[in-house]
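Re: the 241-residue chain
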Amino acid sequence: MKNLITSSALSFALLTTFNATAQTNKQALAERLTQLTKLEVIAIEEAPIANFVQLVTPQGIFYASEDGKHIISGGIHEFSNGFRSLTNERMGAVRGQAIKELEDTFITYRSPSEEYEVIVFYDPTCPFCRRMHENIDSYLNQGITIHYAAFPRGGINTASARQLDSIFCADNPKSTLDNSIVNTPIPPKVCTEESPVASHYALGEQLGVRGTPAIYTLNTATAIDGGALPANQLRGRLDAL
């Protein structure tokens, strides 16, 4: 009986050591990816393929071989009907969580007959953004709630970023945004707490925004291509998803 207990204790110790070593090796892979690419690894997970580790970053997923010799940056699909993208599904969850964390900081125009919610990345110097907002009621009438996120096209150290600060930090952001469209002067404003503009800009970069207005579904972070689509066309794109 004593030998059995000793053997069980040894097996448990070896298993614990093995698991700790495996976790250390995975962490080393994550640290090497960060060192080589400067990307933040936000999750270290089992990969959907054998002998690989899944390294999740805000910009995408990498698959590192457990021996540290190779890394894959492409998407992984199930080899079956439909070729389901495991990579896109995981990144959709990552982006959805990033959106959820910022949702309360968007400027929202809610449809009274809401069927869809979209994020529109907005720059006040973008004429197509302005044109889209001039027709905001047509989107609301189509059952589409609009959540505006700030995206200064030139970066966060620009005049448009400061203008966005004044809009999003205003006592009444919605009316300030409305006034900006009709060229009412916007008084400079600084947030009493951290401005959301930098966070919105980082979210846009994570989602792959390259210009404005850029439209994404709120819940799945699915891109709706076409820029400032008329309301009926945007509704058609959303119906087709």
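The two ends are 64 Å apart (CA to CA).
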